């Protein structure tokens, strides 16, 4: 996978102001923006240029998504726009590199982390009301996009370095987590309205990447299972990777060729891995393939972070050019107060994050999704993939008949070949038996010459054809079995849609079951309401802290009174803190109610899951039967061609076998005649009655060989008396029975 083509990255346009803040799109531009940001920070701490202050001047910047000019009389607006451009420029530089070298991957990863740091500082330290492109939702989206792309660069580097499979899987899973967060923001109606038409393009790319990197994660989990010789787990992980990659391919329509190349490359890798793993497990290891949900989920490993921005770092901003204008005491006091606010925010966020972690773990363990908790809508219609197959068969009404006829023709040719080979084998066995019998009779005389060379060649070719026939017979049987397996499904797909719909399983819910579902949905809605309220209160707290500037008060406050002033100012947050505490405390009761509802839902859920599994299995089986049709026809034709050729060869071989057996029979007769001529003349005997009369007196079942002397013919040796008549030479062969 280290050679997989690189996916494109998302980058942001820079805001424009039409003055000296325009910078080149390179490293020097980033440095210039950082220096300018630092000097603005030094300036605003000394001169009253904030909103409503005496020295405030109009500041105008374009809003990215609408292109409209937005003006505020606030120096912090200038800082915010410069900070936004710093993040946007880093994103642009990160996306420009092709990332084909190790150094390129590192540089791009650093740029995206710097971009995330700039947007994080902007979100946490500046008002969000300046313009749409700097709202909290948009900035949070940008942060997750940049972190996801930085983690993606790290994943490419890890695959290039051939890191351990489990580590690569965790890195890839974290890419998925970042992009899922970004996708949630993109799916938010408010965010979508803010982004405008660019939202759809971003959403398509991010959704595709979610499935793609989930496939990469499961590919490497399968490779880890292979290393651990867990061959059943290997199959299910590669199967899951293949399924997720197919979803990514569906979502990649309209994406650039670089995306398509990456998907094709990955499909070759994953498809090959899955086919090999399944074949090995089916024929060699025979390990049970577990259900994916029973395996431990892949936990992401966040190895990137938002690199912090420090506007006062002299190594970045250079010397403070306004150092002599304003005393630093007020600024120092303001920094102390900012730290108090940050401490308050950290304490509150620690409680929120702890509760959120419990809530997330609980909901993950429940595996309950309010949107699909019953999933009943899917049973009301035939799925599109099945409709497509039905439509295809509706214009090919002779599908089943053609398949049956093809297989019948194959069976006929198969039978003819088998009959010819059997006759050849019988001829050879009969000839061998006659040869063996003759050798037994002539054991005291020199052995018979070898069989005609044609007979050995016939025997060799017959063995070869029998071996070919035996191997092909297994294939033929499997082909008929496959046809019988798919024939009924093909008839169903080619029939009325009502029959197809009736063949798909549907759940049967009682009134009690419906009530259980309704109650569960109601409580799940409460959980979501609790989440939304918590996020809203958190957002209010952040915005309140960001707007809380007491610099003016600090200038007129005695240094000894600073602590008291801080305490008074921080009390304004008490009400919000109370609301948050109430929200956090309510979580325990809500989860208890959800637990009780889930217990009642267990039986219903099991039934729905079984029906859904049967439904999916039925759909997959029907689709597989459709897709198997062309393969069956192709293999049937190949079978007919093979047996037609073999039939011609077998017929020729049969003629040769007959001729060779006749030659062998003639050879044995000649040998017998020679042996008889070597026998001594008969001894004189008393006169015997006439031959005809004596022959008439033979009793049925009598031994003709013992009476040859009485018939006036020479006695045969003991070992020739049981020889069948057709092997006797000359007049002996004409004796009456």
From TrEMBL:
Question: Which Pfam family, an example, fits this chain?
Answer: ALIX_LYPXL_bnd
Bias-annotated ranges (Low complexity): 722-737
Question: What GO terms in the biological process aspect are recorded for it?
Answer: early endosome to late endosome transport; endocytic recycling; protein transport to vacuole involved in ubiquitin-dependent protein catabolic process via the multivesicular body sorting pathway
Record flagged with keyword Thylakoid: no
Stored InterPro entries? ALIX_V_dom, BRO1_dom, BRO1_sf
Can the keyword Cytoplasm be found in this entry's annotation?
A: yes
Write down the superkingdom of origin.
Eukaryota
Where in this chain does the record put each BRO1 domain?
19-359
Which key words tag this protein in UniProt?
Coiled coil, Cytoplasm, Endosome
Disordered: annotated span: 674-737
Q: What is the protein named?
A: PTN23 phosphatase
Protein species of origin: Neopipo cinnamomea
